[in-house]
Predict the structure.
Amino acid sequence: MHTVLITGAAGNVGGWLRRLLRGVYPRLLLSDRRPPADLGPGEEFRAADLADPEAVMAALEGVDGVVHLGGHAVEGAWPEILEANIVGCYHLFEAARRRGVRRVVFASSNHAVGFYPRHRRIGIDHRVRPDSRYGVSKAFGEALGSLYADKYGLRVMSIRIGNVAEKPVDHRRLSIWIHPEDLAQLVRIGLEHPELRNAVVFGASENERSWWDDETARRLGYRPRHRAEDHAAEALAARAGLPPDPIGDRFEGGDFCSMEFSGDPDAIG
Ligand code: 15L
């Protein structure tokens, strides 16, 4: 990997990865609709709106690997999810194919499987179970990555990211939290591992309360260095201050599940 481009570089996760991947690859390019407010003098920025296929093509010129964080990062109305996460994701993979990019690391999300009940331990072989239009868009991105890997030989890793923060902020996050340094480790595996072809992994730190079997990531050498349990007292205290959410507290996706919910929780086995 010589030239790596991060899309969505002006966002929160983009900010972490910009700092953690600096100096790792000879050239690190940043892309977003607008430059990050704190863009440094040594940082190279390429503006691109994912909705504009020509702009995405231009952004990917001379790029070997993409870390695709760009798009809408939470639940939203259908038109914005469609434009940023469905059409935009297609533009990204298609530009990667046409530009001869070798690898794409796709930021998927735990919300692709958010409707699994918390008492179940799931692996990547469990079917997707999105908890929102946002979660559906992430399942779509994973499927697109799989198509481009199988059909065009692009190497793709989709990371179902839990919650990226310095610490798990509440009870739910004790199960799904990932420290930015652990995420950077996973991203580097996606960009560099010689045997990687087409993988979906869960993105979590060393979390005793995890709901996920992350065997694929481990097999690729992932060894998270941060432990959620070290912050358990604080995270549990934070939970005490939150109002009860009978639906959200039952499923992995938390309040993404309870938003707009009018189903039968007992029927979601
Ligand atoms: C995500 O996918 C979101 O991008 C982030 O904002 C958090 O909501 C996170 O999931 C989470 O589930 O905590």
In short: The longest strand covers residues 103-109. The pocket of D-galactaro-1,5-lactone is lined by residues 73-74, 109-111, 163 (CB under 6 Å). The two ends are 43 Å apart (CA to CA).
